[in-house]
Amino acid sequence: MAHSFEDMFGRAVNLMAARMPPTPPETVDSFLTSPGLFYVRNHGPVPQVREDEIQDWEFSIEGLVENPMTLTLRQLMSEYEQVTYPITLVCAGNRRKEQNQVRKSKGFSWGAAGLSTALFTGVVMSDVIRRARPLRGARYVCMEGADKLPNGFYGTSVKLNWAMDDNKGIMLAYKMNGEMLRPDHGKPLRAVVPGQIGGRSVKWLKKLIITNAPSDNWYHIYDNRVLPTMVSPDESANNPRWWYDERYAIYDLNVNSAITYPAHGERLSLIGLPENYRIKGYAYGGGGRRVSRVEISLDKGRTWQLSDINYPEDLYRGVNQQLYGGQLDMSWRESCFCWCFWSLSIKVSELKEADDILVRAMDEAMNIQPRDMYWSVLGMMNNPWFRVAIIKDG
Ligand code: MTE
Protein backbone atom coordinates (compact mmCIF):
# COMPACT_ATOMS: atom_id res chain seq x y z
CA MET A 1 0.00 0.00 0.00
CA ALA A 2 1.33 3.40 -0.93
CA HIS A 3 1.86 5.81 1.93
CA SER A 4 1.66 9.53 1.47
CA PHE A 5 4.22 11.78 3.05
CA GLU A 6 1.48 13.16 5.25
CA ASP A 7 0.65 9.62 6.32
CA MET A 8 4.19 9.05 7.36
CA PHE A 9 4.91 12.30 9.13
CA GLY A 10 1.56 13.82 9.67
CA ARG A 11 2.49 16.94 7.73
CA ALA A 12 3.76 17.97 4.37
CA VAL A 13 7.31 19.12 3.92
CA ASN A 14 8.26 21.44 1.12
CA LEU A 15 11.90 22.02 0.38
CA MET A 16 12.27 25.51 -0.87
CA ALA A 17 15.14 27.68 -1.80
CA ALA A 18 14.03 30.58 0.34
CA ARG A 19 15.45 33.88 -0.84
CA MET A 20 17.26 31.68 -3.29
CA PRO A 21 16.97 31.53 -7.04
CA PRO A 22 16.18 28.20 -8.64
CA THR A 23 18.94 26.11 -10.12
CA PRO A 24 17.20 23.99 -12.72
CA PRO A 25 18.52 20.52 -11.85
CA GLU A 26 18.84 19.61 -15.51
CA THR A 27 21.55 22.25 -15.94
CA VAL A 28 23.81 20.42 -13.53
CA ASP A 29 22.75 16.83 -14.04
CA SER A 30 25.59 15.96 -16.33
CA PHE A 31 29.25 16.83 -16.20
CA LEU A 32 29.24 18.25 -19.74
CA THR A 33 26.44 20.73 -20.28
CA SER A 34 24.35 20.09 -23.36
CA PRO A 35 24.71 22.88 -25.95
CA GLY A 36 21.15 24.13 -25.55
CA LEU A 37 21.61 24.60 -21.80
CA PHE A 38 25.12 26.10 -21.83
CA TYR A 39 24.78 29.56 -20.30
CA VAL A 40 25.23 32.53 -22.62
CA ARG A 41 26.49 35.94 -21.58
CA ASN A 42 26.90 38.46 -24.36
CA HIS A 43 27.17 42.21 -23.89
CA GLY A 44 25.64 42.99 -27.26
CA PRO A 45 24.77 41.64 -30.68
CA VAL A 46 26.53 38.46 -31.76
CA PRO A 47 28.94 38.95 -34.68
CA GLN A 48 27.76 36.96 -37.68
CA VAL A 49 30.36 34.82 -39.41
CA ARG A 50 29.40 32.78 -42.48
CA GLU A 51 30.49 29.14 -42.76
CA ASP A 52 32.72 29.93 -45.73
CA GLU A 53 34.48 32.67 -43.73
CA ILE A 54 35.46 30.52 -40.76
CA GLN A 55 38.79 29.22 -42.02
CA ASP A 56 39.90 32.68 -43.10
CA TRP A 57 39.06 34.31 -39.78
CA GLU A 58 42.08 36.43 -38.92
CA PHE A 59 43.46 37.41 -35.56
CA SER A 60 46.64 39.25 -34.71
CA ILE A 61 49.34 39.07 -32.05
CA GLU A 62 50.84 42.51 -31.65
CA GLY A 63 52.23 45.01 -29.14
CA LEU A 64 55.41 44.26 -27.20
CA VAL A 65 56.55 41.39 -29.44
CA GLU A 66 59.52 40.97 -31.72
CA ASN A 67 57.52 39.14 -34.34
CA PRO A 68 53.98 40.54 -34.73
CA MET A 69 51.79 38.08 -36.61
CA THR A 70 48.40 37.77 -38.21
CA LEU A 71 47.12 34.20 -38.25
CA THR A 72 44.07 32.64 -39.86
CA LEU A 73 42.03 30.00 -38.12
CA ARG A 74 43.22 27.60 -40.85
CA GLN A 75 46.84 28.21 -39.80
CA LEU A 76 45.99 27.83 -36.14
CA MET A 77 44.36 24.48 -36.85
CA SER A 78 47.13 23.15 -39.07
CA GLU A 79 50.37 24.59 -37.70
CA TYR A 80 49.94 24.21 -33.95
CA GLU A 81 49.45 21.28 -31.62
CA GLN A 82 45.74 20.80 -30.84
CA VAL A 83 44.53 20.13 -27.31
CA THR A 84 41.16 19.28 -25.78
CA TYR A 85 40.37 20.13 -22.16
CA PRO A 86 37.18 19.84 -20.15
CA ILE A 87 36.59 23.32 -18.71
CA THR A 88 33.85 24.82 -16.56
CA LEU A 89 33.07 28.43 -17.40
CA VAL A 90 31.52 30.43 -14.58
CA CYS A 91 30.06 33.90 -14.93
CA ALA A 92 31.29 36.22 -12.16
CA GLY A 93 27.60 37.00 -11.62
CA ASN A 94 26.70 33.41 -10.72
CA ARG A 95 24.33 33.61 -7.67
CA ARG A 96 23.96 37.39 -8.06
CA LYS A 97 20.22 37.16 -7.54
CA GLU A 98 20.80 36.67 -3.82
CA GLN A 99 22.78 39.94 -3.71
CA ASN A 100 20.02 41.74 -5.60
CA GLN A 101 17.52 40.54 -3.04
CA VAL A 102 19.55 42.13 -0.26
CA ARG A 103 20.24 45.32 -2.21
CA LYS A 104 19.91 45.87 -5.95
CA SER A 105 23.30 45.68 -7.64
CA LYS A 106 24.04 46.90 -11.15
CA GLY A 107 23.81 43.38 -12.59
CA PHE A 108 20.88 41.22 -13.63
CA SER A 109 19.71 38.34 -11.48
CA TRP A 110 21.64 35.19 -12.30
CA GLY A 111 20.53 32.25 -10.23
CA ALA A 112 22.99 29.57 -9.27
CA ALA A 113 23.14 28.20 -12.81
CA GLY A 114 25.45 30.79 -14.37
CA LEU A 115 28.02 28.12 -15.14
CA SER A 116 28.51 25.28 -17.62
CA THR A 117 31.08 22.72 -18.70
CA ALA A 118 32.30 21.69 -22.15
CA LEU A 119 35.21 20.01 -23.85
CA PHE A 120 37.08 22.85 -25.54
CA THR A 121 39.42 22.11 -28.44
CA GLY A 122 42.04 24.51 -29.69
CA VAL A 123 45.61 25.61 -29.18
CA VAL A 124 47.46 26.45 -25.98
CA MET A 125 47.77 30.25 -25.94
CA SER A 126 51.44 30.14 -24.97
CA ASP A 127 52.33 28.31 -28.22
CA VAL A 128 51.09 31.24 -30.24
CA ILE A 129 52.59 33.93 -28.01
CA ARG A 130 55.97 32.20 -27.92
CA ARG A 131 56.23 32.38 -31.71
CA ALA A 132 55.55 36.12 -31.52
CA ARG A 133 58.51 36.42 -29.07
CA PRO A 134 57.45 38.83 -26.30
CA LEU A 135 59.90 41.63 -25.59
CA ARG A 136 61.39 42.71 -22.27
CA GLY A 137 58.81 44.46 -20.12
CA ALA A 138 55.89 42.49 -21.56
CA ARG A 139 53.54 41.63 -18.67
CA TYR A 140 49.97 41.39 -19.91
CA VAL A 141 47.97 39.80 -22.71
CA CYS A 142 45.14 42.08 -23.76
CA MET A 143 42.40 40.38 -25.75
CA GLU A 144 39.86 42.03 -28.00
CA GLY A 145 36.72 40.59 -29.56
CA ALA A 146 34.85 41.52 -32.73
CA ASP A 147 31.57 42.47 -31.06
CA LYS A 148 30.83 46.17 -31.52
CA LEU A 149 29.34 47.47 -28.29
CA PRO A 150 28.26 50.94 -27.12
CA ASN A 151 31.69 51.44 -25.53
CA GLY A 152 33.82 49.87 -28.23
CA PHE A 153 34.92 46.28 -28.74
CA TYR A 154 34.74 43.90 -25.77
CA GLY A 155 38.21 43.42 -24.32
CA THR A 156 40.11 42.53 -21.18
CA SER A 157 43.51 41.17 -20.14
CA VAL A 158 45.26 38.49 -18.13
CA LYS A 159 48.85 38.38 -16.93
CA LEU A 160 51.36 37.16 -19.51
CA ASN A 161 52.95 34.74 -17.04
CA TRP A 162 49.58 33.04 -16.53
CA ALA A 163 49.17 32.64 -20.28
CA MET A 164 52.69 31.16 -20.50
CA ASP A 165 52.01 28.68 -17.66
CA ASP A 166 50.57 25.62 -19.42
CA ASN A 167 49.36 24.26 -16.10
CA LYS A 168 46.76 27.04 -16.19
CA GLY A 169 45.35 25.73 -19.46
CA ILE A 170 44.68 29.11 -21.10
CA MET A 171 43.75 28.36 -24.67
CA LEU A 172 42.42 29.64 -27.99
CA ALA A 173 39.43 27.43 -28.74
CA TYR A 174 37.43 26.86 -31.90
CA LYS A 175 35.45 23.74 -30.91
CA MET A 176 33.08 22.90 -28.08
CA ASN A 177 32.24 19.24 -27.49
CA GLY A 178 33.69 18.30 -30.87
CA GLU A 179 31.62 20.80 -32.88
CA MET A 180 32.78 24.14 -34.22
CA LEU A 181 31.82 26.93 -31.79
CA ARG A 182 28.26 28.17 -32.03
CA PRO A 183 27.72 31.89 -32.70
CA ASP A 184 26.73 32.65 -29.09
CA HIS A 185 29.91 31.09 -27.73
CA GLY A 186 32.38 32.93 -29.94
CA LYS A 187 32.24 31.39 -33.41
CA PRO A 188 34.75 30.92 -34.82
CA LEU A 189 37.45 31.62 -32.18
CA ARG A 190 37.58 32.50 -28.50
CA ALA A 191 39.94 32.53 -25.57
CA VAL A 192 39.17 30.14 -22.71
CA VAL A 193 40.72 30.88 -19.32
CA PRO A 194 40.05 27.99 -16.91
CA GLY A 195 39.66 28.78 -13.22
CA GLN A 196 39.00 32.47 -13.84
CA ILE A 197 35.70 34.33 -14.19
CA GLY A 198 34.04 33.83 -17.58
CA GLY A 199 34.52 37.50 -18.45
CA ARG A 200 38.22 36.87 -19.20
CA SER A 201 37.38 34.30 -21.89
CA VAL A 202 37.01 36.71 -24.82
CA LYS A 203 34.79 35.52 -27.66
CA TRP A 204 35.01 36.30 -31.40
CA LEU A 205 38.70 36.89 -30.75
CA LYS A 206 40.46 39.32 -33.11
CA LYS A 207 43.51 40.54 -31.23
CA LEU A 208 46.07 39.52 -28.63
CA ILE A 209 48.02 42.64 -27.66
CA ILE A 210 51.06 42.12 -25.45
CA THR A 211 51.52 45.10 -23.14
CA ASN A 212 53.24 46.32 -19.99
CA ALA A 213 49.95 47.34 -18.34
CA PRO A 214 46.48 45.82 -17.88
CA SER A 215 43.88 46.41 -20.57
CA ASP A 216 42.41 49.91 -20.80
CA ASN A 217 39.34 48.57 -22.61
CA TRP A 218 36.07 50.01 -21.21
CA TYR A 219 34.79 46.52 -20.36
CA HIS A 220 37.97 45.69 -18.47
CA ILE A 221 37.67 48.83 -16.37
CA TYR A 222 33.92 49.01 -15.76
CA ASP A 223 33.09 45.32 -15.52
CA ASN A 224 34.20 42.26 -13.59
CA ARG A 225 35.18 43.97 -10.36
CA VAL A 226 34.36 43.58 -6.69
CA LEU A 227 34.42 47.16 -5.39
CA PRO A 228 34.49 47.79 -1.64
CA THR A 229 31.11 47.04 -0.12
CA MET A 230 30.32 50.64 0.89
CA VAL A 231 30.45 51.84 -2.73
CA SER A 232 26.85 52.40 -3.82
CA PRO A 233 25.55 52.48 -7.40
CA ASP A 234 25.46 56.30 -7.29
CA GLU A 235 28.87 56.68 -5.70
CA SER A 236 30.44 54.28 -8.21
CA ALA A 237 28.82 56.03 -11.17
CA ASN A 238 30.22 59.40 -10.12
CA ASN A 239 33.67 58.34 -9.12
CA PRO A 240 35.93 56.71 -11.71
CA ARG A 241 38.74 56.24 -9.22
CA TRP A 242 37.02 53.10 -7.92
CA TRP A 243 37.04 51.56 -11.37
CA TYR A 244 40.61 52.33 -12.30
CA ASP A 245 41.99 50.50 -9.28
CA GLU A 246 43.30 47.17 -10.58
CA ARG A 247 43.19 45.71 -7.05
CA TYR A 248 39.43 45.37 -7.41
CA ALA A 249 39.57 43.46 -10.72
CA ILE A 250 38.56 39.81 -10.39
CA TYR A 251 40.54 37.00 -12.01
CA ASP A 252 40.48 33.67 -10.11
CA LEU A 253 37.05 32.40 -9.15
CA ASN A 254 36.39 32.03 -5.44
CA VAL A 255 35.32 28.73 -3.91
CA ASN A 256 31.59 28.18 -4.26
CA SER A 257 28.85 25.56 -4.09
CA ALA A 258 25.10 25.20 -4.49
CA ILE A 259 22.34 22.72 -3.77
CA THR A 260 20.51 21.42 -6.83
CA TYR A 261 18.47 18.63 -5.21
CA PRO A 262 16.16 19.59 -3.66
CA ALA A 263 15.36 22.22 -6.24
CA HIS A 264 13.52 25.44 -5.59
CA GLY A 265 10.05 24.66 -4.33
CA GLU A 266 10.50 20.92 -4.66
CA ARG A 267 7.90 18.91 -2.79
CA LEU A 268 9.09 15.54 -1.61
CA SER A 269 7.34 12.75 -3.43
CA LEU A 270 4.59 11.51 -1.22
CA ILE A 271 4.48 8.00 -2.54
CA GLY A 272 7.03 5.37 -1.66
CA LEU A 273 9.39 7.87 -0.07
CA PRO A 274 12.55 6.03 0.92
CA GLU A 275 14.03 6.36 4.37
CA ASN A 276 16.83 8.52 3.02
CA TYR A 277 16.88 11.50 0.71
CA ARG A 278 20.04 12.21 -1.29
CA ILE A 279 20.76 15.90 -1.44
CA LYS A 280 23.07 16.92 -4.27
CA GLY A 281 24.78 19.86 -5.82
CA TYR A 282 27.89 21.24 -7.40
CA ALA A 283 31.02 23.00 -6.15
CA TYR A 284 34.05 24.63 -7.72
CA GLY A 285 37.29 26.28 -6.72
CA GLY A 286 39.19 28.96 -8.60
CA GLY A 287 42.67 29.34 -10.07
CA GLY A 288 43.00 25.61 -10.72
CA ARG A 289 42.43 24.77 -7.06
CA ARG A 290 40.47 21.67 -6.25
CA VAL A 291 37.54 21.48 -3.86
CA SER A 292 38.79 19.41 -0.95
CA ARG A 293 35.63 19.18 1.13
CA VAL A 294 31.93 19.95 0.99
CA GLU A 295 29.96 20.14 4.19
CA ILE A 296 26.26 20.12 4.94
CA SER A 297 24.53 21.52 8.00
CA LEU A 298 20.98 20.89 9.10
CA ASP A 299 21.26 23.04 12.24
CA LYS A 300 22.16 26.48 10.89
CA GLY A 301 25.89 25.87 10.87
CA ARG A 302 26.37 24.55 14.40
CA THR A 303 27.42 21.09 13.15
CA TRP A 304 28.44 19.90 9.71
CA GLN A 305 28.45 16.57 7.89
CA LEU A 306 30.95 15.69 5.21
CA SER A 307 29.50 14.91 1.80
CA ASP A 308 30.88 12.68 -0.96
CA ILE A 309 32.65 14.49 -3.79
CA ASN A 310 32.83 13.24 -7.35
CA TYR A 311 35.26 14.79 -9.83
CA PRO A 312 34.21 13.53 -13.30
CA GLU A 313 37.10 15.59 -14.65
CA ASP A 314 39.45 12.89 -13.37
CA LEU A 315 38.19 10.52 -16.06
CA TYR A 316 39.78 12.87 -18.56
CA ARG A 317 43.18 12.81 -16.95
CA GLY A 318 43.92 9.14 -16.77
CA VAL A 319 47.39 9.53 -18.26
CA ASN A 320 49.22 9.51 -14.97
CA GLN A 321 47.19 6.61 -13.72
CA GLN A 322 48.13 4.58 -16.77
CA LEU A 323 51.79 5.54 -16.46
CA TYR A 324 51.91 4.40 -12.87
CA GLY A 325 49.87 1.28 -13.42
CA GLY A 326 46.98 2.80 -11.51
CA GLN A 327 49.00 2.59 -8.32
CA LEU A 328 50.21 6.12 -7.96
CA ASP A 329 47.54 8.61 -8.76
CA MET A 330 49.16 12.03 -8.84
CA SER A 331 46.47 13.58 -10.94
CA TRP A 332 44.90 15.41 -8.02
CA ARG A 333 47.96 17.64 -7.84
CA GLU A 334 47.40 19.06 -11.28
CA SER A 335 45.32 22.14 -11.93
CA CYS A 336 41.65 21.52 -11.77
CA PHE A 337 39.56 23.12 -14.53
CA CYS A 338 36.05 21.89 -13.72
CA TRP A 339 33.25 21.74 -11.26
CA CYS A 340 32.68 18.71 -9.05
CA PHE A 341 29.46 17.15 -7.81
CA TRP A 342 28.74 16.38 -4.20
CA SER A 343 25.99 14.36 -2.57
CA LEU A 344 24.93 13.25 0.87
CA SER A 345 22.26 10.82 1.92
CA ILE A 346 20.21 12.19 4.80
CA LYS A 347 17.58 10.48 6.84
CA VAL A 348 14.19 11.89 5.99
CA SER A 349 13.46 11.94 9.70
CA GLU A 350 16.41 14.34 10.16
CA LEU A 351 15.18 16.57 7.35
CA LYS A 352 11.82 16.68 9.03
CA GLU A 353 13.40 18.22 12.10
CA ALA A 354 15.46 20.81 10.23
CA ASP A 355 14.54 24.33 9.12
CA ASP A 356 17.01 24.45 6.32
CA ILE A 357 19.90 22.77 4.53
CA LEU A 358 23.18 24.64 4.25
CA VAL A 359 26.17 23.80 2.09
CA ARG A 360 29.68 25.18 2.07
CA ALA A 361 32.84 24.09 0.25
CA MET A 362 36.52 24.46 0.98
CA ASP A 363 39.33 24.31 -1.58
CA GLU A 364 42.77 22.78 -1.28
CA ALA A 365 44.23 26.12 -0.12
CA MET A 366 41.68 25.99 2.76
CA ASN A 367 39.66 28.88 1.37
CA ILE A 368 36.16 28.33 2.68
CA GLN A 369 32.82 29.85 1.72
CA PRO A 370 31.91 32.51 4.28
CA ARG A 371 28.74 32.54 6.33
CA ASP A 372 27.94 36.12 5.35
CA MET A 373 27.48 37.78 2.00
CA TYR A 374 29.95 40.39 0.77
CA TRP A 375 27.65 42.74 -1.15
CA SER A 376 29.25 44.77 -3.92
CA VAL A 377 27.90 47.09 -6.55
CA LEU A 378 28.31 44.72 -9.52
CA GLY A 379 27.00 41.76 -7.52
CA MET A 380 29.89 39.50 -8.43
CA MET A 381 31.64 36.52 -6.78
CA ASN A 382 28.73 35.89 -4.45
CA ASN A 383 29.70 32.81 -2.42
CA PRO A 384 28.24 32.67 1.09
CA TRP A 385 26.85 29.38 2.39
CA PHE A 386 24.08 28.26 0.05
CA ARG A 387 20.77 27.71 1.79
CA VAL A 388 17.63 25.79 0.96
CA ALA A 389 14.78 26.29 3.41
CA ILE A 390 12.50 23.47 4.45
CA ILE A 391 9.01 24.85 4.54
CA LYS A 392 6.64 22.87 6.67
CA ASP A 393 2.96 23.21 6.25
CA GLY A 394 0.12 21.36 7.84
N1 MTE B 1 33.57 38.08 -25.13
C1 MTE B 1 33.06 39.02 -25.94
N2 MTE B 1 33.72 39.33 -27.08
N3 MTE B 1 31.91 39.66 -25.64
C2 MTE B 1 31.21 39.39 -24.49
O1 MTE B 1 30.15 39.97 -24.25
N4 MTE B 1 31.16 38.09 -22.40
C3 MTE B 1 32.05 37.52 -21.39
C4 MTE B 1 32.89 36.38 -21.98
N5 MTE B 1 33.48 36.78 -23.22
C5 MTE B 1 31.75 38.41 -23.60
C6 MTE B 1 32.94 37.75 -23.99
C7 MTE B 1 31.37 37.02 -20.21
S1 MTE B 1 30.91 38.19 -19.08
C8 MTE B 1 31.23 35.69 -19.96
S2 MTE B 1 30.61 35.16 -18.47
C9 MTE B 1 31.59 34.68 -20.95
O2 MTE B 1 32.04 35.24 -22.16
C10 MTE B 1 30.39 33.80 -21.27
O3 MTE B 1 30.71 32.84 -22.23
P1 MTE B 1 29.55 31.97 -22.85
O4 MTE B 1 28.47 32.89 -23.35
O5 MTE B 1 30.18 31.17 -23.95
O6 MTE B 1 29.04 31.08 -21.76
TrEMBL record:
Full-length numbering of the shown residues: 1 to 394 of 810
Self-association and partners: Homodimer.
Protein name in the entry: Nitrate reductase [NADPH]
Native source species: Glutinoglossum americanum
Domain of life: Eukaryota
Family named by the database record: Belongs to the nitrate reductase family.
Protein function: Nitrate reductase is a key enzyme involved in the first step of nitrate assimilation in plants, fungi and bacteria.
Lineage: Eukaryota, Fungi, Dikarya, Ascomycota, Pezizomycotina
